Amino acid sequence: MKRYLETIKSEEAVQRILEHIRPIEDEELIPTYEGKGRITTRPVAAKYSNPPFVCSAMDGYATMFEKTLEADVAHPVTLKRGEDAVRVNTGDAMPEGMNAVAIREDVEEPEEPECSIVIRKPLYLWQNIRMIGEDIIEGDMLVPTNHVMGIFDVSMLISAGVTHVHARRIPKILIIPTGKELIDIYKRSQSTRNQERGLIDFNSHLLAEMAADAGFLATRHGIIADRKELRDVVDKAIDEYDVLLINAGSSAGDEDYTEGIISELGALVFHGVSMMPGRPAIFGIVRDKPVFGIPGYPVSAAISFQTFLEPVYERLTSVRIRRRTVPCFTPYKVPSRVGMEEIVRVNLQRHRGRYYAFPLPRGASIFSSMARADGLMWIPENIEGYDEDEEVQCQLLKDEGDIENRIHIVGSHDLSLDVMRDLLKTAHPEADLLSTHTGSLSGILAVKKGVADLCTTHILDDRENVYNIPVIKKYLSDRNVALVHIAKRQQGLVVRKGNPKKIQGVEDLGREDIKFINRQFGSGTRILIDLLLKEKGIGRESIRGYEREESSHTAVGIAVREAVADAGAAIYAVAKIFSLDFIPLAEEEYDLIVTDELAKDRRFARLMAIIRSDLFKKRLGEIGGYNTELTGTVKYGKL
User: Fold this and answer.
1) Which of 248, 271, 343, 573 is most exposed, with the fewest beta carbons within 10 Å of its own?
2) pTM of the model as a whole
């Protein structure tokens, strides 16, 4: 009997296979430390901030920076131990009232412990100190639904107090080697090996490792030498495993039983693919489970697995598998220090056929940037960094297809972006949303330079008293863009519960007993605060903490809750999350700028469908502080 005379193309074969595969919906609650390689079925938020308190970043002495301002080499400052200076080690909580740490190498310590220490250079506020939530803020969504957790994700989650996560059940695959010519080298004594002739079965080990590397929970069956045993194994195992893979027995020889057994127990879908190696590949369905027969030649077996089984894993788990190094371009100058090779964590943005590598926070304590990075960029030790638009090579940490399917937003931070991301990943597991919190104005300038297509903004024009449209006309008059309304939100000051300092509004920020925490330069929140201060005639220099900046609303909220500051500028939702009091200042319009190029992309169509959905509005309503009556409307330009 002649078989596989009519072969099909590999693309068609994959399509036929995937038509019969459905994603696994079962979930398990697992310890976070077992999460590497597992796929989340729910979004995971931080339980605690990291660090959970203000702590020393160095070994040395905690003190008040104000007492060191006059120090220099010729006129050292003497600090009394136990009063003006307290010995601390890295990670120790800062003593009350202390706001800087002098590292031990910069301190002259007399041998007598009761004597004072000597400092010969001044300290500045918060020098050598890690603030609460420097890395992770309590309540932040750390990973979304359908996220494959890596080593760094697991460590990040544990550092944020997450002990357990909901994960999709791992798909199980059974590898069945066949052929009476095969021997199992691990089940033969040395004397038997010397006497018997046969082919060592190493394909089953190869395929089991490839399956495990892809993400399957792989099991190797013993070698099967006859048809009846193979039929019995398939008939029994099909109810226990998600996938069966029969190695060898797929060709047209007298002992190639796979096609017949699949046909008897289920239905044959195809036998024969027009590719080499791998031509005799078989696929069928038995009791709604996929069964594969792949060639016995090892290269054919490996190629067949990559071609057919990896897509099956992707469909079962809703994830993709790929590894690559890609050329990228720098969106702006990336400085570095000569004499030190630097490995920079980057996010990648695809724009007009090029990858742009956006550096992530480079501090050694910012572990979350490693978990969120798309790749790594090496800066050699003999240069001072890279210039703007310079080509570099990036090693991918994430699948390039995921990056291609992802949509990248720069600009203003808001909790609605986390909601968008989770809903997008839930509806389209292969898609994703990345937000880089540069502030409204910096995001608009990125669009102007042509390195970004989406920007969130909430900039109020003080002359027209209009949000966002005037700034578009000012900076993006030469770009074809549209402005989509996300939501109106309550912006104001957050203070500790009960408002112990009795703060009434921005007019109180100039008081000597008030410590303020600000947003970064260029953010819409910072612009609003500056406008209100100007209206009240309050000088920035009179505000303690005005120069202390955070890049997100949640970072401001946690700092106020933990008394690092008495007041900060943030949205109402943050006050609700951290049980803070809220002093409203304005209802502002939080909008999304999109270029004409991206507006035609299906990725943006998916995002717009999320923004305009009732579920998105419902989720924002649950958070609080949002008015979604006009959500999804186009305020400027056309889509």
Assistant:
1) 343
2) 0.67
- In 453-563, which ranges are E strands? 454-457, 460-461, 466-467, 481-495, 516-519, 549-550
CB 218 within 8 A of CB 173: yes
- CA 121 to CA 295: how far, in whole Å? 73
Looking up tokens 């990725």, which residue turns up?
603
b/e burial code for range 50-86 (CB count within 10 A of at least 16 → b)? bbbebbbbbbbbbbbbebbeebeeeebbebebeebbb
Return the CA Rg of the chain.
Answer: 30
Distance CA 27, CA 29 (A): 7
The residue type found at 313 is Y
Residue with tokens 């067949």: 304
Q: How many residues are recorded in the chain?
A: 639
DSSP annotation of 204: H
Within 10 angstroms of residue 141's Cβ, the number of other Cβ atoms is: 16
Give 544: exposed, middle or buried? Use CB within 10 Å, 0-12, 13-18, 19+. middle
**How far from the centroid of its chain's Cα atoms is residue 224's Cα?**
45
Measured distance CA(60)–CA(71) in Å, rounded: 17
DSSP 59-109: SEEEE-GGGGTT--SSS-EEE-BTTTBEEE-TTPBPPTT--EEEEGGGEE-
DSSP, collapsed to helix, strand or coil, labels residue 427 as: helix
Structure confidence by residue, pLDDT tens digits, 449-482: 888 999 999 998 888 889 999 999 999 999 999 9
Compute the mean pLDDT over every residue in the chain, rounded to the nearest whole number: 89
Mapping DSSP to helix (H, G, I), strand (E, B) and coil, where does residue 54 land? coil
Q: What is the DSSP string of 299-364?
A: HHHHHHIIIIIHHHHHHHHT------EEEEE-SS-EE--TTS-EEEEEEEEEETTEEEEEEPP--T
